Fold:
Amino acid sequence: MPTAIVDIAPLTTTEAAVLALLTIEGERSGYDLMKAVTQAIGHIWTPARSGLYAALPRLVHAGLAHSRSVTQSTRPDKQVYRVSREGRRALKDWLESVEPGARDTFFLKLFVGRLTTVDVLLRHIDQFVADTEGRLAGYREIEQTNSNTGDDWYHRHLLELGIERAEYELAWARRVARALRRGPR
Structure:
């Protein structure tokens, strides 16, 4: 039975990740998707099981995915899902949307980067670099006022961690940008 397309808000990260997984993996059940998360992208994005299962009927209701029952001889029927044409468009829009400060979303978009273009990924990296440079500048300002005595002595340890992480992430992002421009080897 065809599903009516309803106007929905922009995709949540979970909805976008589910659409990306369905695009990459093909038709899957909710259980299969949870397995794919654990085996593939769990270190980048891990939804609550209930969040993933709740996203599936929302995507179907919005016309972004289709579902069907699969009859199994030894077990109860299960639902499997696949991306619709509208779901592919919504995923493309989500992938192309550059969001300042959306660090975890950036990592997820890079992880499923094969679904978009190098130019789009480079725009995301540019935003990530700008966000990270801003964070590093804030840490450097705090560093100037940190006396490294009393409570500041304790704070200093975490401040140094923040600075080192930001510096590492900037170097990493620049390496990734160079690699994207060069292409896979």
